[in-house]
Design brief:
Elements (H helix, E strand, L loop, with lengths): L2 H14 L3 H25 L4 H4 L20 H14 L1 H5 L9 H9 L2 H12 L7 H4 L5 H9 L4 H8 L3 H17 L39 H15 L3 H12 L4 H10 L15 H21 L2
């Protein structure tokens, strides 16, 4: 092992023991990494905050009202990442394996899937953000939103909240209609778990700190190109076409629920046929026609 790597191991060990000078060096080393990831993550999950608060990132994101308070999430995310990357257990694990420098070690962790998932768990307390317009429907709207996302039955949600099934049914429909208007129905997609050789997570009980941080490398060029074609073609579809494909194919909603949402929004999918007169057969035909249109748009982009 060369002298530089030996010195970096010693630096990490000294910092883990609270040496002030070593800590300063570690902070300086992680600063550009954390700065970059904080900007990435915050912008991805900013939601309505950009309109209510002044962004605290180095390069502010979005306009804010004059005199708005500083957003708490930028600085809080920076602090969380600094603690995750430079806590004592993390630093003690650095052994310069395969000639990896301390910077590469920390960079790989910060760009790994487990790091991203830990940050999201901290940021949202393990939950997806409930839009403000959903929260304002009723006091129980957030709980119903989470119940729908977990694919719980109306009866179970009603039992948990101590309300009638009719009330929960109506609130569920209101939530679906509100999300449809905002093109945000994907928020009701159930959470999925991706296993990368059974990655483990940090916990208070895990004294050995056996965290498997796997760098998330770029995907194959062919896959990226196909996604770009799909994204471009998808953007050329009409909003109602996007909604029907998203609801029936991606989210696998019942056709009856999709028809109900279209009727409540008074959206017709067939010329000369009113929204309230649209039937399942017409909806399925509209879906097939939209799929063909999407495929044609992707072919044209070649």
């Amino acid at each position: 092992m060369n002298k530089l790597l030996t010195e970096q191991i010693e630096l990490a060990q000294n910092a883990s023991q609270g040496d002030v000078a070593a800590r300063k060096q570690i902070n300086a080393l992680t600063h550009p990494i954390i700065n970059y990831q904080t900007a990435r993550f915050c912008k991805r999950f900013c939601f309505e905050n950009r309109y209510r608060y002044a962004c605290s990132l180095d390069k502010p994101f979005g306009p804010a009202a004059t005199g708005a308070h500083l957003c708490e999430w930028g600085n809080a995310s920076y602090g969380w990442m600094l603690n995750d990357l430079s806590n004592s257990k993390r630093l003690l694990r650095y052994q310069a394996k395969d000639g990896s420098s301390l910077n590469n070690y920390l960079y790989s962790i910060a760009n790994s899937l487990p790091f991203y998932e830990r940050w999201k768990d901290w940021r949202f307390d393990g939950r997806v953000h409930v839009p403000t317009y959903i929260q304002q429907l009723q006091p129980a709207a957030s709980q119903v939103f989470y119940g729908l996302r977990a694919q719980e039955t109306i009866a179970l949600i009603a039992q948990k909240l101590g309300k009638s099934e009719q009330e929960i049914q109506q609130l569920s429909r209101d939530i679906i209609v509100s999300l449809t208007k905002k093109n945000r129905l994907h928020l009701l997609n159930p959470p999925s778990t991706v296993s990368l050789t059974e990655l483990t997570h940090d916990s208070a009980e895990n004294d050995n700190f056996t965290q498997s941080d796997i760098p998330s490398y770029d995907e194959a060029l062919e896959i990226s190109e196909e996604k770009l074609k799909l994204h471009t073609a998808w953007g050329q579809l009409e909003p109602v076409e996007q909604y029907v494909l998203e609801a029936l194919i991606i989210e696998q909603q019942d056709a009856g629920d999709v028809l109900l949402a279209l009727r409540q929004l008074n959206i017709s999918i067939k010329q000369g046929v009113a929204a309230h007169e649209t039937n399942r057969q017409q909806l399925y035909y509209y879906r097939r026609k939209t799929i063909v249109k999407l495929n044609d748009l992707m072919v044209k982009s070649d």
